[in-house]
Amino acid sequence: MLRPALVLVLALTLTAGCAGTASRERRQPPVDPRVETLREQLEETRKTALETLERLRTTREEKQKLAEALLAAQKEQAEALESMAELRTEKFAAEAKLADLRREYSRLEAEMAERDEHAAEPGDADRPIEMTVSFAMGGIEIDEEQKEAIERLGRKLADEEGIVYVDGHSDNTPITSEQAKERYGDNLGLSMARSSAVARILTEAGGLPAGRLVVRGFGDAQPVASNETAEGRAENRRVEIRHAEATDVPDAE
Hints:
Elements: H1 4-27, H2 33-115, E1 129-134, H3 144-158, E2 163-168, H4 178-184, H5 187-205, E3 213-217, H6 230-236, E4 238-244
Parallel strand pairs: 2-3
Antiparallel strand pairs: 1-4, 2-4
Helix pairs in contact: 3-5
């Protein structure tokens, strides 16, 4: 049997232990709901920060790819511009060569005209002028009134025999427009273009057979008025339509 004193000591010890445990439980404060909320918010913020960092990394990679693509495009553009510059240089050189060839062609054509006396055939002055068509400076346009008159003349001459001469002329003002130079070359080419325009109306609208036409250009070689005045130059910018009957045509039977 335990002694009474020992039993008392054990009882006191157990009582003291239980009291200490109860005291510690009482000392722990209760959990504050706000702390838990803050803890959850902190965790959410951490997750959001990680996601933002991942998106930033992806964005940087995409930006790098775009920068590389832009650099490649700029390089291609520079190469294209260089090729365009080379082509433009070649184009200018070709245009200059073409202009030289046209001038040479016009010169040779004029020389041939002089050699075969095409610029002043015997009997030209004796062939009556059926119509004179006027032109603006540097142009080959024909107004409606003149077109209608040319059509009527074409229908009239279609019923007759003989050759129809369509002679183009110009004043002595040099061509300055680059576009006109490219199209006509010089005044000789311009006069030929004028006579060709009249000839088309005679054949297409007037019904005159093309085989009966002789289309010529004389440039400023046969003025009918002084080129010193605006009025005189206007008179010289013309196409003369002459009719030669069959008996008046060279080599006619």
